[in-house]
Amino acid sequence: MKKFDLEFTVGLFVIAGIICLAYLSVRLARMEITGGSGYEIEACFTNTGGLKTGAAVTISGVEVGRVKSIVLEDYFACVVMQLPKGLAVQDDAIVSIKTKGLIGEKFVEISPGASETLIEPGGRIRDTQPALDFEELISNFVFGKV
């Protein structure tokens, strides 16, 4: 009988460990299981420069959302961003793709506008700036095109 109790206790401990590991994996990957609360807006770029799904969306350096998906539409990369419900984005805001550090990860920066008209959920930001292509800059410098 004692052997059964010991095996049962070890089994419970292993199951609890697996559940904790799964929880930490989801939290560290910043995934959402139940679906995010908030609304989505879209911005289309000529070049996303390696931006990935799940990348941060910031306003004034503060992380406010995540990139939900990136799709190709008419040869433009359209980025769908998930933002919280209470956050209002003006229709003259500018969206750009930035890099953390010199070769760090990519993120989306929203520069607020001054308009009183707000973008509706599911709307599109018109003013975009694509990612800076370092290879093209270095090539232009090396070959004297700068």
Blueprint of the fold:
Blueprint: H1 2-28, E1 39-45, E2 56-59, E3 62-73, E4 76-83, E5 94-99, E6 106-111, E7 124-125, E8 127-129, H2 134-142
Parallel strand pairs: 1-7, 2-6, 5-8
Antiparallel strand pairs: 1-4, 2-3, 3-4, 5-6
Domain Mce/MlaD: 38-113
Transmembrane segments: 6-26
Pfam families: MlaD
Please provide the ordered H/E string of secondary-structure elements. HEEEEEEEEH
| Count of structural domains | 2
**Spatial separation of the terminal alpha carbons:** 81 Å
What is the mean pLDDT? 86
Report the count of strand segments. Answer: 8
Helicity, in percent?
Answer: 10-25%
| Coarse shape | extended
Walk across the major sheet and give the strand order.
7-1-4-3-2-6-5-8
Largest sheet: 8 strands, mixed
Strand fraction = 25-35%
Structural class: alpha/beta
Fold and architecture overview:
The structure is a single chain. The chain has 146 residues and is of the alpha/beta class. The protein has 2 domains: 34 residues; 98 residues, no CATH class. 25% of the residues lie in helices and 33% in strands. Strands 7-1-4-3-2-6-5-8 form an 8-stranded mixed β-sheet, with no helix packed on it. A hairpin with a 2-residue loop joins strand 2 and strand 3. The longest helix has 27 residues. It is extended, with a radius of gyration of 22 Å. The N and C termini lie far apart (81 Å). The model has no long low-confidence stretch (mean pLDDT 86). One of its GO terms (molecular function) is phospholipid transporter activity. Pfam families: MlaD. Keywords: Membrane, Transmembrane, Transmembrane helix. It comes from Uncultured Desulfatiglans sp.
